[in-house]
């Protein structure tokens, strides 16, 4: 089968990330009972992922709900963003960049308010692909089928002629449901090998 486009997830694929443990880390540092920060802010992270709250609003809510100073909240968010951004998978990023102009390319991310600006500063993703769809900007998140359809519309390609790469099974299943050919990312070399097989 011939393909017209490839879409990649970001975190866990192009960015090598560890467990997001910033809440428990600061609970330990501040002597708070386990689950205090996470429990009081559980609704804020999904809201940020869909663009329903700004980052400043989320910071203020965290400060108010957990009774933390603005300075401590700033430290928590610095750690959160460091964990969120991880480190670049250079080999996989270069492989994706090399698919242009033969194929349309894009990124499709369940994100958090502020991600585009920080990822652009860290990695310059906009120069690597034709389009980037962030959940916080469009108000839809994987595995909702509409976000895959939207990403394909923005690239002007048919989902059935698109390859999608993600490290989360639920996100891969959502892409398959709209007709995409999928790769569940486990490691760099196997993903590149699968792409090479599909695209040659």
| Strand line-up of the largest beta sheet | 5-4-1-6-7
Envelope shape: elongated
Largest sheet: 5 strands, parallel
* Amount of beta strand: 5-15%
Give, in order, the helices and strands.
EEHHHHHEHEHEHHEHEH
Low-confidence stretches: none
What's the Cα radius of gyration? Answer: 18 Å
Number of helices: 11
Q: In terms of structural class, how would the helical and strand content be classed?
A: alpha/beta
Distance between the termini: 9 Å
Quick structural summary:
With 200 residues, this protein is of the alpha/beta class. Helix content is 51%, strand content 14%. One of its GO terms (molecular function) is hydrolase activity.
Q: What is this structure's SSE topology?
A:
Blueprint: E1 5-8, E2 15-16, H1 22-30, H2 36-41, H3 44-49, H4 55-66, H5 70-85, E3 87-88, H6 90-97, E4 104-109, H7 115-123, E5 131-134, H8 135-138, H9 145-155, E6 162-166, H10 169-177, E7 181-184, H11 188-199
Parallel strand pairs: 1-4, 1-6, 4-5, 6-7
Antiparallel strand pairs: 2-3
